[in-house]
Write a structure and sequence with these properties.
Alpha-Beta Plaits, alpha+beta, 4 strands, 4-stranded mixed sheet
Length: 131
């Protein structure tokens, strides 16, 4: 006979809120964003819905660390390993795979220079535009 699962906690739990951003991670995100924007073929970081909502949330106006986080980039740290995800728009004259590989390498360099061990580096190309 299968065990029953208590789901009351899931039904009545508070909605998840985004944790406060560590100032050292804000600096890392800004440096990684600059490095990625320096990659040939990259037009811009693409804002995600989460980024737009963060900017519109009045509670974040009192939290300057939340306002300094660049759009289209996020970081997760697990002990000594740092994972980073970036969402990009690239030029139509650029090839997606080589551009993504260069962006990944730029991020790895930023992580290593910051004394972090690169983990999973995800580059999502969300738009290809003339520019």
């Amino acid at each position: 006979m299968p065990e029953s699962v208590d789901r009351t906690h899931a039904r009545h739990s508070e909605p998840e809120t985004e944790p406060a951003v560590d100032p050292s991670e804000v600096d890392l995100l800004r440096e990684a964003a600059r490095a990625v924007l320096g990659v040939e073929g990259v037009l811009r970081l693409e804002p995600r819905l989460k980024d737009i909502l963060r900017r519109m949330d009045p509670s974040n106006f009192r939290r300057p660390e939340k306002q300094k986080v660049p759009d289209g980039i996020s970081v997760k740290t697990f002990g000594t390993i740092t994972d980073l995800t970036v969402d990009l728009a690239i030029r139509s004259t650029s090839r997606a795979l080589p551009t993504a590989a260069k962006a990944q390498e730029a991020i790895r360099m930023v992580l290593r220079e910051g004394g972090r061990e690169p983990g999973r580096i995800v580059v999502n190309i969300l738009a290809v535009e003339h520019g």
